[in-house]
Structures are given as structure tokens and as C-alpha cells.
Predict the structure of ATP-binding cassette domain-containing protein.
Amino acid sequence: MTDPELSARKASIGYGRRLVVDGLDLQIPPARFTALLGPNGSGKSTILRSLAGLQPLHAGAILLDGKAIASLPTKSVARRIGFLAQGATAPEGMTVLDLVRQGRYPHRTVFGGWNKADTAAVEQALALTSTGHLRHHKLDTLSGGQRQRAWIAMTLAQQGGILLLDEPTTYLDLAHQIDLLELARDLIQTQGTTVVAVLHDLNQAARYADHLVLLKDGRIHSSGTPTATLTAPAIAEVFGVEVAILTDPETGTPLCLPRKSRTTRKPM
């Protein structure tokens, strides 16, 4: 059995002396959509940053094609992994085309000029995200959904094959949330892209993701298919909320209907 493209082995991750994630073992299925789920502070974004090679480890390793990311040159990692941070910003006045061209940085050499491969990669990224008609528009004039698509186009221009998204649907209205998640599914089906995203909406994760990782206090509570992972007992343990699990009539995936919180709250 070959190593998965991206994995964590006994990874302990934190900030300074504060440990957020301890002894993480995680395998990311290639060419699938993995959603990281859990309450605030459970380590979702920290894990995602570590998978991108952006967060130093206290112990263990993040492996890319079986090799420790920490031992690989930064550009070589960037040629395989595209990372989109939550609330990413660009310089004022930057156009969509300018932004997407930035995705070719990992492939550039000190003395190498812009070439046909760079142009082809940028055009493909614009086409895949349906942003070609926006190429000369400034980012700060676009809607939230359009900006997210432009940023994803930038990461696709890297042609890495692995796309890490930190809360990509935050601040988007429902229509744009669905649009972005359908784009992720399309990239998996047509390009074989591996997608890992931090999500908050359990029902959206169940509908669009293939593999769910449920986190609590920096550890994996459970993982697997939506049906296996999103159970009423698991959600009660992780989120402190009692739910009824129904079946989505369109997809057959779990549909979580909150009933009440187990958390005792003070009167307002």
C-alpha cells in the first residue's frame, strides 16, 4: 500500500508553549473532499496550516508523498499544495489576473521569464473557476463569492493537486456557499484535486465532502464517511448539542436537526 499524498504522523502542534493538537494521526484521502469539523478551539485551522507546512510542529511529522514537509524546499511544497487562508487579502487595486498570476511563483526561477506554461496554467485556472470574464476587474470591486473564486484560481494556478481551504464559506451568502462547494466537487471530479476544508455547517459538510474528521480538544474524535461520522451521540459529545439525524432526500447523506443544547447557559 502506497503512502497517501498528505498525512500527519504523531504530530503535536501549538503556539509557543501552548499545545493545541497532540499526537495527531491523519491520512488525507487523495482526490477526495475532506472536511475538518469541530467547535471553536478544537484545532481545525491549526491542523490545516500544519498540513500546508506553515505551522511548525512540536513533535511528529507532516508527510507529503511520504516525505516530511519540514525537510522539503518551500517552493517544492508550494508546487504541490495550494493554501487559502481565511479572509485572505491582496494589495489595493490588484486585478484578478494579477492575483492569479501570483500562483505561478513556485514555478519561477530567479532568471526565468514568464513562459507559455505559465500562461496556460493561468488561463486554465481562470476557466476552471469561471473567472475569465473578471480578469481585468479589481478584487475590491467584486462580490465575496467572486473574490473567493479568484483566490481559488490563484491556488489552482500553482497546479499542485492539493487544495487546502480555511473556512472558505465564511461571510458568504447561501448561494455563494453552495457555488463554492460545488466548485470544489467539480475540481475533484474533473481534475482529481485533493480538497481539505475547514467547515462549520455540518449539513453542507455531509452533502459535499467524502471524508469527515470530527475534532474535539485537539484530537480526532471520529472520522470516516458522513454517515459513519455524523451520529447523534458523536455530535452531542463534540458540540454539546442534541440532534435528530434524518436522511437528506436528495443525496442520502445525514441531515442534522438540532433539538437542544446540552450546555447550561446563564439567562440573558
In short: The CA atoms of residues 128 and 190 lie 10 Å apart. The chain has nine helices and twelve strands. The chain has two domains: 1-80+160-225, 93-152.
